[in-house]
Amino acid sequence: MFPTWRIAYVAAAIQQAPRGAVARGLASWIVTVGAPAVFLGIVVTVESRSAAGGLIIAFWVALMVGVLLVAGGLWAWRVSGIVDKETSALYNVLGVVETARLVLRPPVPQDAVALAATIDPQMLTGNGWTEREARAMVKSVRSGYPTPGLLAFQACSDGALVGGATVHPSESDPSARTLGWWIGPRHRRAGYATEAVAALVEAIHDAGFATVEIGTTESNLAVQRICDKIGAIEKDRRAQPLPNGSVVPSIWYAHRQALTTTSVEEVLP
User: Fold this and answer.
1) How far apart are the C-alpha atoms of 126 and 248, rounded to whole Å?
2) Which residues, including other chains, have CB under 8 Å from residue 213's CB and lie 6 or more apart?
3) Which of 19, 84, 120, 160 fits a 20 to 30 Å CA distance from 182?
4) Distances from the Cα of 52 to the Cαs of 44, 45, 48, in angstroms?
5) How far apart are CA 126 and CA 257, in angstroms?
């Protein structure tokens, strides 16, 4: 049985890839699987000349159906593996990041319940998520194959999960990554967000990305204060569609990596 994540990756590949490429890929697997199957079918038919014609026809029908199922399954497995590697390269750009009070890391299945507890109506509203999206994210963690780019914030003191973040490719700049985050209701107003965001921005720069983009609504003063604290500069203001279908006035910030003395010397003649 195919894992859910593989099915999703195959569906995405079919939607995004040219139809001709999809057809050629599937056809190549049908030929690969079908050639030995046809040879087997001919041998069985020759050896079963005395069998009723209906049985031979049923055998060939079953053989062809089996070829299509096996070839389709192998093709889908291969495609999902390729998409998985490409997705990991795009999204999983950070390892474990440690701060004075937190460990910022990819979630594991055991985190599912605790991560769900960090999601409340305020978090959904602030990030423009729907309950369905939140459940899907938690389900992905429970399955052992979390949403690409997802990180969990774990407190060093007691191991509790205090929140999470997403690190995604920028839609407009390949040298940038987009950062979003949230803190659960039991751990807000303790400075965790500023601590985590500052560390993640530094880690993203260290991973080779010159710019970190942060978007927030004009009414979210908490995120705006964090952006000011870490030195992010307002880039533009525009109406932003959110995952829940609403469109809100938003502010986009950019934190750009500062050139060190060494790097300046390297770029000057």
Assistant:
1) 11
2) 170, 173, 176, 177, 178, 179, 235, 252, 253, 254
3) 84
4) 13, 11, 9
5) 27
Name the amino acid, one letter, at 118: T
> Smallest Cα–Cα separation from 163: which of 110, 117, 226, 109?
117
Q: Tell me the two tokens of residue 89.
A: 């390269």
Closest CA to 70 of 35, 102, 94, 43: 35
What is the distance between the alpha carbons of residues 247 and 7, in angstroms, rounded to a whole number?
30
CATH architecture of 97-267: 3-Layer(aba) Sandwich (3.40)
Residue carrying structure tokens 């060939």: 60
Amino acid in the structure at residue 190 = A
Determine contact, residues 109/142, Cβ cutoff 8 Å. yes
| Closest by CA position to 21, among listed 70, 75, 69 | 75
Nearest Cα to Cα of residue 253 among 263, 229, 244: 229
Cβ(146)–Cβ(167) below 8 Å: no
Distance CA 90, CA 15 (A): 19
Q: Is 260's pLDDT higher than 70? A: no
Q: Which of 47-61, 66-80, 93-107 has the lowest mean pLDDT?
A: 47-61
pTM: 0.78
| Ranges of each domain in the chain | 4-91, 97-267
Q: Angle at Cα 239 formed by Cα 236 and Cα 244, nearest 5°? A: 130
- Tokens 């299509």 belong to which residue? 68
Q: Report residue 237: phi and psi, to 5°.
A: -130, 135
